[in-house]
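Case study 2.
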Amino acid sequence: MKHLPLNPQIFIDNRKRFIKEMKPNSIAVFNSNDEVPSNGDALYRFQQNSDLYWLCGVEQEDTMVVLFPDNPDPKYKEVLVLVRPNEMKEKWDGKRLRADEAKKLTGIDTIVWLDSLDALLQSWIHLADNIYLNTNENDRKGTLLETRDYRYAKEIMQRLLAIAGLTWKAAFRFRLFLVLAVLLLASGVALPLLIKDDGTARGELIPIFVSAKAQVSASSAMRLSVGR
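Prediction:
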């Protein structure tokens, strides 16, 4: 059932309420529901994800809201992601929102098309300390159908694991772990020889030993940052 557009200030206030509860330097990603097929090429009537609608008021599929209040680029603190309009598809499925229409409806100034989101989102995730992903926590949830939110959460986890794997490989390649292991072993063996029973140092040995460790650590960090 169609209805008149709501006042966009409702959604602006809702986003402010959610952002107020977010941890510092966090990013939150919300997805729309899936289109559900019935028979042939027909689809059931689309029902929007209530959480996403509460934040933006958009009722079409393939929609996302990305909130990153501490984004260094003010343009991307609030982002509405929409599917790029396709005039041929609109003949069958109905009109889709244009950027200017979405801005008026939601109060979000930055509109990004879904097919160009990945590169932007990757950089935002690298900048954030925490990621909020929407899930259904209703105790009476009892469906076997995997929702778009859960699929997206798995995709983000796979990306983060891939990044962690590359970091470990780089660390091993530049022998950082080997250097740290040697330093820890040297500390465990040498410190008992350099400290008296009363806890004081034996002459000037400890400052020299600590200085040598610091130089090796700095050299390893430099190698890791500049490459081979």
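The chain has eight helices and five strands.
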